[in-house]
Fold these 4 entries.
Entry 1:
Amino acid sequence: MDSLSRFAARTSLAIVAAACLGSGSAAAQPARPQPAPVAPAAAAPAPAGPEAAAIKKLLEQKFPGAEVRGVIKSPYFGLYEVQFDDRIVYTDARAKYLVVGAMYDSDTKVNLTEERQRKLNRVDVAQLPLDLAIKTVKGTGERTLFVFSDPDCPFCAKLEQELKTVDNVTIYTFLYPIDSLHPDAARKSRMIWCADDRAKAWDSYYASGALPNNKGECDNPVAKLATLGAKYKVNATPTLVFADGTIIPGALPAQRLEAELASGEAEAKKLAAAKKS
């Protein structure tokens, strides 16, 4: 563990999320906090300048081995926003003090740090290997949702229940068994993948617990998806990825799913338009 991680571990509080936690083949990880309700965006941070570059250099000296991905002036109290790996912290102009925690808007009750983090950690959905996913089309299928799911995770079962009331969406399910929590999940994942109709087998399993009549010995993507999940730091199931690449762990209720789907689709269109311009 690097010096910053030790510092953060001593000062941060873990918030339990509605998800099964683990890392595919490693021990369980601390829970990620559930995002606050979607709200108007906070003021944008100012562009980086010479002072931000100096702060970055100071922090790299103070925390050897830590990856300082970026430093920019935040809109809060003259502080600077610092990206350490996939974490946001705040510091002053001399990098003397570090604020490890979330910035909240007391009027909207929105976790501004988490909203910002979600944007910074977006997945490039165009790079997701859809041929390794179980594809389910509901209604028109005009919206898109990607899910990392473990067949033995109770929160994944809860998500499947919530998804029953969500229509007009194409769902790509990546089989992501967490061995440390569910030793039999990988076997079940392989059996579901080896079914003639994978989407039907997935639904049938959650409806009745019935598994396909095969030994799960076909060519399957379970090992590859463990690597993919590690790449995107997926340590909880279910983990949802929306059309704009936003990642949210946990079994979201249907109403929240609808809001996030709408937000993700709208933001994806903006991002696509910006690339063309």
Note: The radius of gyration is 20 Å.
Entry 2:
Amino acid sequence: MEQHIRIPEKEVPVVKETDVLVIGGGVAGIAAAVAAARQGVKVTLIEKSIVLGGLATSGHVCVYLPIDDGNGNKVYGGLAEDLLHVCIRYSQDNLPEVWRSKPDTAPADSERYMTNFNIPAAVLSLDEFTAQEGVDVVFDSVFSEPIMEGNTVKGIIVESKSGRTAYMAKMFIDASGDADLVYRAGADTETLKTIVSHWFHELDFDIMKRGIEEGDMLRAVPMRWLGLVPSGGAGDEKEDLTCDGTTTEGVNEYIRLSRGLALDFLKKNRRDDFAMISLPFTPQFRMTRRLVGNDELKYDDEYYIDSSIGCVISSLDKPATVYEFPYEGLITDKLSNVFAAGRMVSASGRGWAIMRFIPACVLTGEAAGTAAALAVKDECTVQQVDIRKLQKILEDNGVKLHRTKAMEGNKPKIWKLEKPDVEPGTPIINKYCVHVDPEGYRMAGDKH
């Protein structure tokens, strides 16, 4: 039988009143906060950890996946492109030279517009970037619950070293990754168990020597990937290595499983010429809970979206089919002043998997932040935002709202798993990372 206790009521101090409040300092939250600040409104970003970047940094997913379609056409402009360059501002990278000047197109056979980046350097660069843009970042503060008045969020309660405090705002952006605000505020959501994996950097003398000989830091200090390799779909993974990221029990189970994989690997590879040199400090969940919004990403035959806030792709596909994401996928009629941003926007099935990639998260963050600023200025609800005005600002900032003719021929590619011609346990090196799972499987098309 479930037990409950009653907590005595007490006054909670209001420590801040702002125009736009963003929950979550991952790449979507950063983009949302910066986009809103650039429109001249006051912005506060609440982050539960002490670093910005979310999965991209504390989660060790330090690979900014392609923002081109694989045929030489840039798909993501705006902040999705800007943040790529921010992440490598002070670090080593492997960005192809053809894309360094941020062109719209490159030869069709060019390498992809993507890069690996150094995590500490990216964290420090993101600190600088948000400060320069005038974003008030509040670290080490965990969102607890919304303060509601009907279907409007008036403020939020956070837990921090100062105890329970309140932040009040006119507009809110849920970039928590797990739809924490929209769920607790009463919106419709969907939950999904997702796969367990574990990324970490390692030192191996033989691999390091080759990297040094080639002058390649990323090869000298590679990333290893343990656990299940994603199939590219959503909901079709093995149940024995999946967890629910929306519960305390699920998060702790994920931590036990992922660190168990790392410990097993470490025991098998304990030797003088090998060292595990980093651990992720946030669970590497892909999809957990998302908004069921007024519309969602359509990826079957419906390409032109009149209310599009930008183009999206499954970044690993080559060529990548280009889709358009509707403004209505950021909002719900159940909440008057809340936007979703990042992997938790309204998209189901494979669409959910597409929207979790870093470039798509940044795109939705930029759109949500810009729309929130417009709503503040026009004193309107999220449903009343002038979409044409929003689209004009996004397009002026470099966002690709609609597919170009050059992108129309791209057809969806179905990924499958295949066994490589290497011994199980051998690191598999590709453009995106160095990874290996317990059985040595790799994604079809990877180089090794």
Note: The CA atoms of residues 141 and 160 lie 5 Å apart.
Entry 3:
Amino acid sequence: MTAVHESTEELSRQAFLAELTTTLDDAVAAGGSLRLTAVDRRGEGNSWETYLVDAAWESPTGPATAAYAVKRQPRSGIVGDYDVTREVVLLRTAAGLGLPVPAVIAYRAQPPRGFFVMEKVSGAIPLPATVSALIPDRGRRDRLGRRIARTMAQLHTADPATMDTAVLGAVPAGAATGAQENDKWTAVYRDVVDVPIPVLDLALAWLGHRSDAVSGRVALVHNDFRVGNLVVDDTGLTAILDWETAHFSDPVADIAWFAQRTSRGRSPLLCKLIELEPFLDEYESVSGWRPAPDALGWWAVQSLVKTAIGCLQAVHIYTRGDRDDLRYANMAHSVYYSLGWLGRMLHDGEWGH
């Protein structure tokens, strides 16, 4: 990185922190007294720039402090358009449905790089590799898995007609969700792949041929509902994070994503928490329905295809210079996990026939 680039980045950072200070000062009515006492740029996640900040100010009743989480639009990323207003609408929609999400404190959507501020939720964010260490008790992991199933069903039973569809986009016909999803990721694949990958070519063709295997239902799906985007503490699930790719689709997509092999490896436990049938039992107890095996199988293949193509997209973004985050380059390694599980499922007759 050149000295000129470093200087430009630092100026951009200082301007952002000044605007953040003003925005928070207005939000808490601090009368110009608010100051940031700590700013921690976080490395987790591959989408928004994430910061944890501490603030202090003078309130009418005396000194006040608070901790916040801040998401800032990146210069580029896998999602494409990081829309602050859309994210805020999604968080507030989820809160209105009674789901555990961080409260939005304030936001600025003005270009070139907007941001939004949320309350900092207490707890830990387990990853597939750390969930067993963070939650060593098997019974507690099972209870958390059951709570997640009921919470997911709560999201999926909400009527899309009650939501801000102007921001979230048109509600598709139930029978069209599979074809729409496959068309989207086929287009991304054609755009970013340098050398065709036969198992992906086959999987995309199979998904297109079997796109009518979806459930026929439509709901708001989170689209990344898994450990890594869930905050937990001793009481269980405290927050669902990262709603930037949420959209209207088949709710089975969320179930299959939570069950994906890349989040559990050879473990029979979804996200290393709970087996499939107990998860579906809890889901059905709230939603009143259970996905058919064909629909769950279709979305299981689609989830691996999407993961592989998303990683290829990240590498493409890195190589063309839009993002200098080495984690984007390293996603080339992650592609092979998805391809490996697709190949294993094909060998075992779980798709392709």
Note: The beta strands are 35-41, 49-59, 62-72, 104-108, 115-119, 219-221, 230-233, 236-240, 247-249.
Entry 4:
Amino acid sequence: MKNLNLPTLKLDNNPDSHFESPFIEKNGLLEFNPELIKPEFLTNWTFETKLYGEIVSVDHFVITFPDRDALENYAESCRPFGAKTIEGPDLFPINFCVENVNVPSDLWLHLMTLLMPAGGLVVLDAPHAVGDQTHRFQQARGLTAVHHVALRVENVQEAAKIWQTKNFKPLSKRPLDAGTLTQWFLENPAGQIIELIERHPGNNATFDCKNIAGLRLSEDEGRREKEEGRRKKEEGRRKQVLNCPLK
């Protein structure tokens, strides 16, 4: 993966400023405001906003498209406004890393990353096959759904404490740390994912190949744990009903 020299995010430090955002919060989930994911807005956005009551610096977020053609057409419409393609388009992860990354084909996707003038990243993805994980996500929640937002933080461990008070639970037992890039996915009960990303000196890449398998599989691990919790809770309710004496 390229070691990109990403510029520092241009943030407005005025606490009274208005944080216009492409994100809409609905019942714990995030959706895009369709008017604010157009190139005209995103190429002028500061990548600073407020999410779940917290002022945050957005490192990157994902916009999903029905297919690779739609993905590339969107990227082309961003170029006149100063956006630069820094990754892809290509099949992720197998065509991004020379290492043998053991990720099931269900988790593959077409991926492209745009660097916006303010220094934030917009990741574009599309299913690589009908029925894969990305396709199922689109079918379940639609194209305006936000799969995840990555927040640039100074310390992943400390930031995770703040988000756990907002009812976000880590999807893996510990952060994924490749040595110079640390990432951690957290999820709330509604199923919304927030990624915390800490960029260490000397590594400004969009992701680290050593972290890929963990990043893609941690979501499935969290899903399995959640389903197991629901199953046990349902079994407990059934036993309670069966053991309840008749009046």
Note: The longest strand covers residues 54-64.
